Amino acid sequence: MTTRKEAADVDTKDTSIPLLDRAEPLALDRDVSAGPSPEYTPLWDAESGIRQRLAADSATKRMTDALAAVETKMVEFGKEHVNWEIKHTSDESLPEPQSLNLAEIASAHGLTVQQTGLLAPAEMFEKFAGLADSTVVGRSMMFARLAYTGDLQPYTTVASTDSAGNQYVAWITEISPEHVPELADIKEEVISAWRFAQARPLALARADELATEARKSGDTLAQAFADRSDLTVVTTGAFTWLTTGMVPQFSSPILRISEIDGVDLPGSKFMQTAFALSAGEVGVAMNQPESIAYVIRVTSEDTPAENLRSDFLASNQDMYLQVGQADVQQLLRTWRADLVADAGVHWERPAIEETRR
Fold it and tell me: pLDDT for 327-357, tens place per residue?
């Protein structure tokens, strides 16, 4: 290697000479952007992503270890409870094992516990969508399908993971046979659901009126409705239709609907409306549970359409096959429903059918 004294005789513009062999001012004065494009992403560009990935890897490991510790205790109790059931058939005086204090155990490992109570399938998908749609580890099926149509027994521990990377350890503590409740027992719920259903078209109609006002004004929504204290205008910032999230995936990445600041549970129809609008255009869409009607105005598009087309052509086809899977499933549901209606078929369907949500 050239010494410091000899460095004065080195051609500082000759990039074939190792950097340490060139004069010190070279490292300070050379414009790195003027040289050839680097083969790999520079560290200063990749630093943020690397930090996020390392943090996600660390968080995933801690979460997995914590869940494994809790799951071990749940499995042990499940075996103890099965043994008690067997012995209880011949000795009814035998006391039932004292249930685990899951809240205390989970808290010690930085986890949370949620007790659902008895739920019908539709209620699980409405109130606990992540758990309902999560994939059971080792069985490649939804938790809800296993819980309602499988052979899952009380206190049998089930581990699952949803599309957002959230992990669950759950068990069933009580099974209630299917039945039609008396109207007197659910009257308030029926009235509430009926009113909610009647309110949806009214909310959409009102949103359409507001959208018309916004289009006529030509202003931003904040400007158009500046004097309306009964309306809330939110600037969401840029968002994508789908995302894989920051949690590491152990196989192919699972795409899911992106979260949007200020929008409660956006769904595919919301995204379809938003991404069909050009900058400055106004549209109306409801969220996934159809509980809120939104007036949408697109302020800008980060990526030109021609770039999106080139990215689409260059991307892995498997990713887009996954994107279209939901549309294929919806098409099959619609086709089956139309076929049954056209044929005039009528049957008593089981209370649990995974396509009825």
Answer: 788 888 899 889 988 988 877 665 444 444 4
In our burial notation (b when 16+ CB lie closer than 10 A, e otherwise), range 128-164 reads bbebbbbebeeeeebbbbbbbeeebeebbbbbbbbbb
Nearby residues of 173 by Cβ (< 8 Å), 6 or more positions away: 154, 155
Q: What is the mean pLDDT of residues 201-221?
A: 94
Per-residue exposure over 226-257, b if at least 16 CB sit within 10 Å of its own CB, e if not: eeeeeeeeeeeeebeeeebbebeeeeeebbeb
Nearest to 236 by CA among 324, 298, 291: 298
Q: Which amino acid is at 99?
A: S
Which range has highest mean pLDDT (2-16, 42-56, 258-272)? 258-272
pLDDT in tens, 168-200: 999 998 888 877 889 998 899 899 989 999 999
CA distances from 131 to 145, 152, 158, 210 (A): 11, 15, 11, 37
Phi and psi at residue 143, in whole multiples of 5°? -60, -40
Q: What is the pLDDT of residue 247?
A: 52
